[in-house]
Amino acid sequence: MKAILIVEDDRIYARTTANWLVKNGMNARYVLSVDTAKDFLSNNEVDLVLSDFRLGDSSGVELLEWMKTHGYSMPFLIMTGYGDIPGAVEAVKKGADNYLPKPVQTEKVIGIIRELLGRRETRERPEQAFYVCKSPLAVKLREIVRLVAPADGLSIMIRGASGTGKEWVARQIHSLGKRSDAPFVAVDCGALPRELAASELFGYKKGTFTGATEDRAGMFAAANHGTLFLDEVGNLSMETQVLLLRALQEKRYRPVGGKEEIQADIRLLAATNEDLERAISDGRFREDLFHRLNEFPLYVPLLKDCEEDIIPLAGFFLSYANGELSKDIKGFDRDVKKAFKAYSWPGNIRELKSVVRRACVLAGEDWITLKDISLPVDVKPSDDYRLDMERTEWEAIVKALEITGNDRKAAARLLGISRSTLYLKLKKYGLI
């Protein structure tokens, strides 16, 4: 049973919330202060933290930053009263997964908590966290990842178009490497304000600039002993690039406004969809940093070049969309599959996921049809009776597999077909 820690300085409210979570099948404990929460986290296994925004003289944000500094990566939710919502939103910007207006005893909150706990499970089991692609280019990439992941001292640059899954590749490298038990911290360099990038990466000291009311650790500290993933690294300013290069070369860094250097024990992975060689010639990226990051380049293929994976990936995203949207869509009809294969997917895997989620919302029947996907491709609709036959066959195969506990030999016997015929149909419907 998943363990949830409630941090709330109102004892009655803390006990009420804990009891409510227990009634909903969760193992909930509560503490009344930030200091007690730190002690509890240091001595107990916790899967999710649910913290009040205001905690006496302290705050949930202080606890969140302490957790990040000390390598705790479990989901973190902020509870807040109406007047503190702006502060809670700021907490989300600093790394909280969501904020929940008080009172939190609603079914919606249970859904949010279960979703976050489910995400953590997939992070802990990375091989099951994503469809394992079977196209030749994807298989080749996966084999290279397996070989390079244990090479801890090697700098890896993950290159590929937007939406191809570069962060997932980085997570695979981390999970198969020597630091898999330590934090994985992902930073979107494109979302960092240029003037604040250095303080976000390396932290800052109190009084360094307006608003720096206390010392704050940066992403390097949060990733200590683990992996720091810098996505879209080409967006960093030249000044930040200098600091990053020095930190990587010296394995030490200095917080903004600080005097003492801190040891940097991290594995750094970088990714970009930009032509960094052109950025170097344009004077926007340092050549020495490029060579430091690009010791071993990995190239993530476009979705359109992995045609064998398009339908299975769509099915994978549909299974998640069904769970998140409380739907029970069985699959895609023949015309949709033809449209998926005919489309060029400029947004790659990210676009496919969005199309599937939207179609799951719009679908008025058990199957997603052409009218639900709105892709700019010319696909002539098939005869309805052919689609009905396919749907019936798909349902029969799924039912047979369920009855036989996924025993293909027994399922084929139940369906009255050979094992080889069943295998071909499983492949046809994206069930393997």
TrEMBL record:
Statement: the UniProt record of this protein carries the keyword Cytoplasm: no
Entry's Gene Ontology molecular function annotations: ATP binding; sequence-specific DNA binding
Pfam families for the chain: AAA_lid_14, HTH_8, Response_reg, Sigma54_activat
Keyword annotations: ATP-binding, Nucleotide-binding, Phosphoprotein, Transcription, Transcription regulation
PROSITE patterns named in the record: RESPONSE_REGULATORY (PS50110), SIGMA54_INTERACT_4 (PS50045)
Domain Sigma-54 factor interaction intervals: 131-361
Residues found modified as 4-aspartylphosphate: 52
Top-rank taxon: Bacteria
Keyword Nucleotide-binding: yes
Protein name as catalogued: Sigma-54-dependent Fis family transcriptional regulator
Biological source species: Bacteroides faecium
